[in-house]
Amino acid sequence: MIVLKILAFIFAIGIIILIHELGHFICAKKAGILCHEFSIGFGPVIWQKRKGETMISIRALPIGGYVSMADSTMEQILIKEGEEIGIVLEDGCVKELILDKKMDSDVRGTVTRIELLGVHGEPHEVELETEQGVKTYPVLSDAFMVASPKDRMQITPYDRSFDSKKIPARLLTISAGVIMNFVLSIVLYIIISFATGVPSNSNEIGSVGEGYPSAEFLQAGDKITAINGNPIESWDDLSSVMNSLAEDGETNLSIDYERNGIPQETKSCEAYVVLNNYGLSNIQIDKNATKKPEESHKVMLDGETITLKKGVQVGNLGLKFGDGVKEQKPSNDESYLKNGDYLMAVKLHKRIDSDTVLEEDWNIIDDWKNVISTLGATTDVQYFEYLFYSQEKDDFILASTPIYSYSDALLNSQDIVKYKIYIGISPTYHFEFGGCMANAFKEFGSSSLIIFKTLKELIAPSSNVREVGLSDLSGVIGIFDMVSKTVSAGFLSYLSLIALLSVNIGIMNFLPIPALDGGRALFLLYEAITHKKPNKKFETILNNIVFILLLILFVFVAYNDILRLFK
């Protein structure tokens, strides 16, 4: 299985980088720009092959790629007057300029004059001083400079360089990678949408999830007619009723349904609950967690004797520990809430800002309705102390490290509902060309907006407490972990992740940051507005500095990814 996950990861990253760089490459070739190398990855070469005038490379580090486009100043830097070089001739014209003194050549001499650019239409030629005297040799426009037997680069006449092209052509070439990432994402979302279809707005059940309480009596093809006495005639009705019940904290449901047109006996069903704002749920409770807390147990909390109720048993958890200002980790010898434990009592602290906190009284937990009413009203970062019954300790424990919430602003930025109840049913789906296309573009738009909202929360948080930081970013290792999980979830989930990553990489690459495509586009816009080319030396130095900073960020993100995996 691990081999499949590694291959799936390589394909996902590879296709996104390939499509991105292919966009640059195609537009560069259309504009007549000479491309020395088309590389997937950075670092040492794994595989390399020349195709036409471009070297195709696969390199060791899968953190990006590049198209090495011709620079109009490169040859003038590599070959200077007074330097000894060799030349290889073809019909009296230079086809190779040999920089390596150990390599064979037809003629060897000292450069007295060289013109390889032809900025103003000057002929391409090199003048050499040899023992026989000074002689001028015409240079072919597709001649190669050879630094070593393995290092060959085609010369760049000015009209084949990136700098020689008009601003619209250069801007399109720079932007093409991002455009191709968007195209890939849209195509994948269309494939997914066509494969799944669009949901039908009927009250008929398309599928029932395994492990949900409703699976004990519901099956595909049944029709829900009422929930808790609320009539259901369409899927919109069902969604509306479920959302209303969630807001009321109602998790004990009575379900009326029909099978083959025949009304069935009303069934009671305990809904699954997820509080995304705190990472609490009762989904997939550990089957080995069979111990139950003692009823009417009395405990001392803040100097007051309190009688506990039955509490709620928790399942899968996504908890963040701390007080909302700084994330904390429970110590190794500290007991904290885990899958199968019972949450018995909570004490909520409402954080107004980094210095001000309003403290509420202890609230005894009796059911999930009580949990939702107590913890579901988060409008800003809050945290709570808690008492729980531990399966491991078989005892009631007052946790030392509190649990804190995500704010509404952050949840909204990720299109995540604060809390929801589930009974594990899905609607029927059907194919509809217009609806499928609309859904695909809707998914693409939603994915794009999420990225911008996340960046906004990273730079200018909506709440009084910063909830998203650099430590929350994921890199290559984090992406591998996500790919591993989606591979297990199915092929369509895998395609959906590739589509999301393609949007992410496209947008992030086009941010106005030097060393990225967006930074280069910004310099081009400056040139278009001012009609002056930016200082080449300044641009190069700035790009190099930012590139080094991005590499440092890459290492930092990879380190945090590793820490998360071990957690």
Write a concise keyword list for the protein shown above.
Pdz3 Domain; 29% strand; five-stranded mixed β-barrel; six-stranded antiparallel beta sheet; 567 residues; 35% helix; 11 helices; 4 domains; alpha+beta
Task: Please provide a brief summary of the model.
The protein contains eleven helices and 28 strands. It has 567 residues and is of the alpha+beta class. The model has no long low-confidence stretch (mean pLDDT 88).
Describe this structure in words.
The chain has 567 residues and is of the alpha+beta class. It has 11 helices and 28 strands. It has 4 domains: 1-26 and 164-197 and 433-567, no CATH class; 82-160, no CATH class; 201-273 and 425-429, PDZ domain (Pdz3 Domain, Roll), CATH 2.30.42.10; 285-405, no CATH class. The protein has helices at 2-30, 74-78, 167-196, 235-247, 368-375, 408-413, 433-459, 476-489, 491-509, 517-530, 536-566; strands at 35-51, 54-69, 84-90, 93-98, 107-115, 125-130, 133-148, 151-154, 198-199, 205-208, 223-227, 230-231, 252-259, 262-263, 267-270, 272-275, 280-281, 298-301, 304-307, 312-313, 342-351, 357-364, 382-390, 395-398, 403-404, 419-422, 425-427, 429-430. Strands 20, 21, 22, 23, 24 and 25 form a 6-stranded antiparallel sheet that branches. Strands 3-4-7-6-5 form a 5-stranded mixed beta barrel. Strands 11, 12, 13, 14 and 15 form a 5-stranded antiparallel sheet that branches. Helix 1 (2-30) packs across helix 8 (476-489), helix 3 (167-196) runs antiparallel to helix 9 and helix 7 (433-459) crosses helix 9.
